[in-house]
Amino acid sequence: MKIAMIGSGYVGLVSGVCFADFGHKVTCIDVDSDKIARLQAGVMPIFEPGLQELVAKNVREKRLSFTTSLKEGMDKADAVFIAVGTPSRRGDGHADLTYVYQAAEEIAREIKDYVVIVTKSTVPVGTGDAVEEIIRKNRPDAQFAVVSNPEFLREGAAINDFKRPDRIVIGTTDLQARDVMSEVYRPLYLNQSPIMFTDRRTSELIKYAANAFLAMKITFINEMADLCEAVGGNVQDVARGIGLDNRIGSKFLHAGPGYGGSCFPKDTKALARTAQEADAPVRLIETTIAVNDQRKKAMAQRIIKACGGSVKNKTIAILGLTFKPNTDDMRDAPALDIIPALQQAGATIRAHDPEGMEHAKTMLDHVQFCDDAYQAAQEADAIAIVTEWDAYRALDLAQLKEVMKTPILVDLRNIYRSSEMARHGFTYIGIGRSH
């Protein structure tokens, strides 16, 4: 199969290289000529474990290429994937579909033979209808079908998620398009990955519903953490106790500073907005959004309280800036709420992150970025672990205490045991556990 992938960001690049690794011939297309030039030189625009090696392999074997030319990329393509960004629109929280509609107009000009146009971007229900209308308006003579095929990739584990998915959702009632998509995903079907065919609108809703449910699950356990602290419980045991119930499951039951990233914040907002416009409000989702926003802001107060109620003229070391480990993604990361609030309270911030500091430098002011955790902790009045990178899971606590001014550690990810920290002379504050 020949596949054109419009958009060489996170979803487009990972999907494109994985399709190429299946044996398809894939052309990744992007309007950003600098990004394409870097990709052609083997330089990745994002950090994702294993991505650079997989790209190099498939470029070398001539199954993967990069271009700024849609005409070149679409030539004789069986399927054209739209994998452009759909950020939250300012003002109303709805998904901004500017790039999706622009791609549809450009695709219309290049259609020659029958082609399947696939929306891989996360889009509100009804977007596929609009894409089809745009193409038909521009090219009433064209033979094509528009299909919804949402992605379910976790940053930091995206390649494995693509190659070993829980399910593949394909939204189309067009039989010819169904045959094409079955062939595109045939390598996964042979691995017994379930392919679920639905109508297009249902497929679009499945993506939003999945992310909203997971966001609610995170927010639920975060509220249970607060309750545990108030009554003397242990949220980690609560999470294990309910997670062992097969109807609930253990995933996404890890208390922390709130969810962030490229998907959950914007997708919950977009779903809530869609539901409001349809006069079918989703109150649980709306509450989840509000509770999560408040929680991220409250984490700074937790650190301030650990420092005796004031951080004025104090130095706080922040370990972890990205919204989760194994990515350089800073979008809606809790650190973006925590650090400015601490600075406003008078603190000096020293920070470290294994992969996210370059992006963080463009989003945070007056932060001293350090080479490692120990440099960040130098003369610090307290440390806060904000992202649970592996690099922070086995810190030399004796060395850490030696370089700090005051041995206070606020663990927003519950990496350490309170008994272990007490043994090393630290004042330790976790999440959802009595102190």
Task: Give a quick precis of the structure.
This protein is an alpha/beta fold and about 425 residues long. The protein folds into two domains: about 1-200, 3-Layer(aba) Sandwich (Rossmann fold); about 200-435, NAD(P)-binding Rossmann-like Domain (Rossmann fold, 3-Layer(aba) Sandwich), CATH 3.40.50.720.
Indicate the topology:
Blueprint: E1 2-6, H1 10-21, E2 25-29, H2 33-40, H3 51-60, E3 64-67, H4 70-74, E4 79-82, H5 98-110, E5 115-119, H6 127-138, E6 144-148, H7 158-163, E7 168-171, H8 175-184, H9 186-190, E8 195-198, H10 200-231, H11 235-243, H12 264-277, H13 283-306, E9 315-319, H14 335-344, E10 348-352, H15 357-361, E11 367-369, H16 373-376, E12 382-385, H17 397-403, E13 408-411, H18 418-423, E14 427-429
Parallel strand pairs: 1-2, 1-4, 2-3, 4-5, 5-6, 7-8, 9-10, 9-12, 10-11, 12-13, 13-14
